[in-house]
Structure formats: structure tokens, C-alpha cells
Amino acid sequence: MAKLQVAIDLLKIEDAIALAKKVAPYIDIIELGTPLIKSEGLSGIRKMKDAFPDKLVLADFKTADAGELEANMAFGAGADYVTILGTTGDSTIAGAVKAAKEHGKGVVVDTIGVKDRVKRAKEAIALGAAFVELHAGLDEQAEEGYSIQVLIDEAARAGVPVSIAGGVNMNSIAAVKQSGVVVAVAGAAIYGAENPAEAAKALKEILNA
Amino acid sequence: MAKLQVAIDLLKIEDAIALAKKVAPYIDIIELGTPLIKSEGLSGIRKMKDAFPDKLVLADFKTADAGELEANMAFGAGADYVTILGTTGDSTIAGAVKAAKEHGKGVVVDTIGVKDRVKRAKEAIALGAAFVELHAGLDEQAEEGYSIQVLIDEAARAGVPVSIAGGVNMNSIAAVKQSGVVVAVAGAAIYGAENPAEAAKALKEILNA
């Protein structure tokens, strides 16, 4: 059954924890978005994990270099997953995987900026990533002609464990589930909703159906 | 005359400021490395700028998405420059440039992971970047067969303002200067030296010669 991940793109850890408290019953993975990480530093990860010791915490580091060092930082602060950019070299991913094995945690490779996402997803899994995030960033989503359908089609033919991020909402969640993802990542559809708990619950019900 | 930038890859802002105090007389740009940013958050940038109001402070965000938001965060915390990944889409760079213009600050595009660095450098300058960092990351430098000469050759034929990072030291600084860079970035050659001040002074003297 696909997990539900909430991507929290707020800038204050107190606001992020307050949001997480509302939606936690329906969420499997709590993601601290990259701007939140850069705003609060490692102490933000520690505070989130301390507040939700039974949830999986993902630190969206989007690491582009020093893979082992940065992954060790994230895991040391309490993260269960750390993201590494797929555009980076294999040695950066391999370094992060080494750190993940030592901590019993996982590396997620983020395909933002990658030209051939399916090919890179297969390579990343071969390098030891736990799963690969097929991802259109906030800037790409704002570009004319963007559709999540591209990611859904790629997930269906990837043949390796993937998540989808970039426009997961009530309109797309059934198709995202159908594509066979291991994780569906919702951001604005939850944190931007009038009632984040109801929004998370509705998404989770479709994943569980 | 080429500026000298020190890349500080320490994890505690107190250690970073202590190092910066030693080398400041010979340095034009103080860079907070990506691991330091992720470790300390925005408060690290603020502390560094407060300690060195007359130096240029570069926040090595390596932004891969939400260019305008992340650049605004860095400039708001006191950074004079923020780095954006060249592997990311043009809209991310353009968003960061928009924020830079509003703050009267600058965007530096980091070519880590870029296949054709010279081509991307020209595109980044056309998008409004202040300069482009021709960069081999720590992981790439550790790979067999790496040589800074590739970056030096690219700088010489780029025809746009570039810096070089990835192996700048006493062996390479003269060739780096000769290539016409606007900034030479030294990391381990300074922070890993027995006497960081002497190391920075020696590099600066060659740039000024």
C-alpha cells in the first residue's frame, strides 16, 4: 500500500510542527522541505523527530555534493530519509548510501533537473537508493504546459520503487496510486488547504481504497 | 583583479567565524558552504555578516528549486551572493535573479553536475547571473583522474565572468589567475592548512601579482 508523504514548505519549524500535528493521523512520512532545512538547520529536523518519534521523517536536503557527510548530518539529527539530487554524480549517491547503511536509514534520489528520469531512477536504485522521487519542482510546475501526467506515465514504466511529487492532489491521487508508486508526496494540497487534516485524510483514503 | 573567496566547509558557525577572523585580511568573499548552511540555518548567515559587515558573504545554497524564495531567504539573512545549481531549470535561475535585483545583490550559478559547463555558463549570464562557478565538487575531486586543468581551460574560453572551485591551491593558483577568472575559490587549501592566514595570504599575493 502506497505511503502518504506531506511536504512541508513552511519556513518556521514551529509552524511546521503545528501543521504536522493536524495531519499526522493520515501521514506516513513527514518531509521537511528544502527551504525549511535551510531556514532552521539541523535543529529543525531534531525538533520534528522528537515531536513525532513514531513517524518517518524525511529531510529534503537535495544534496549535490559531499553525499556521505550531508547524509550523516541528516541521519544524526534524526532523519529517516535524506534526499540526494539525481543530477549529481554516482559517487555522491554512493556516499550517501554508505551513510544510510551505517545508520539503518534510507536515501531518496530526487530527479529534479534530470533529463531522463526513468533511466536515472534505475541507476539510483542500483546504487542502493531506497526509492526515487519522480519530481517536478515548484518552479517547473509554474511553467506553462506542465502536467503531472508525465510523472504518472514514468512511474508506471519505471519498474523500480518510486514516489511522485509535483501536483499530487485530489484530482490526481487515484492515477498516482494506479501508477504503482510506493509513496505519494502532497505539498500545497495539504499545507495550503483550508482544512489540512481533512485534505490529508481524503488523500489517504484513496491510497488505502 | 581576481577576488579571493574562502569556502568554509565547517559545520559550526562559531568555528567558521573563528577561521574567517584569521584569514579576513586576505579574503574578499566569505563563503558559508552548503553543509554549514544546512547545519546552522539562516542564523549562521546573519552571524557571519554581522561579524564581517565589510566583506562579501556568499551563501552556498546550491538551490535546485524555488529560486526566488530561497534567494530571498539568503539575501534577507545578510548574504551578498547566493548560489543556484546550473542543472536546474532556467525559471529557477530567473527567479533568483529577480530576488537579487530587488535586494541589489548577486546570483552565482554553480555548474556542479552540468555536462557542458561553458555552454551553461553563457546561458546563466544571459539570465542575469553575476558570475558562474566552474566547479568540481568534493566527491568529483575524489574520483580517479580528476584534474583542475579542465576547469582552467574552460575558464579561458568561457568569455563570461567565471570563478573556479575544486582544487585551487598554491600549485594551481597562478594558472587559475591566468585563465581570467573574476574569483578564485579556495577551500581545503585554506581551512585545512596548518596556518590558514599564511595560506590565504600566499594565495592572495599571487592573485595580486
UniProtKB/TrEMBL annotation, chains A, B:
Question: Which SMART domains has this protein been placed in?
Answer: OMPdecase
Work out whether the entry's keyword set contains Lyase.
yes
Q: Name one GO biological process term.
A: 'de novo' pyrimidine nucleobase biosynthetic process
Q: What is its EC number?
A: 4.1.2.43
Listed A to Z, the keywords are: Carbohydrate metabolism, Lyase
Q: Name one GO molecular function term.
A: 3-dehydro-L-gulonate-6-phosphate decarboxylase activity
Q: What CDD domains has UniProt attached to this entry?
A: KGPDC_HPS
Work out whether the entry's keyword set contains Amino-acid biosynthesis: no
Q: Which family does it belong to?
A: Belongs to the HPS/KGPDC family. HPS subfamily.
| The protein's name | 3-hexulose-6-phosphate synthase
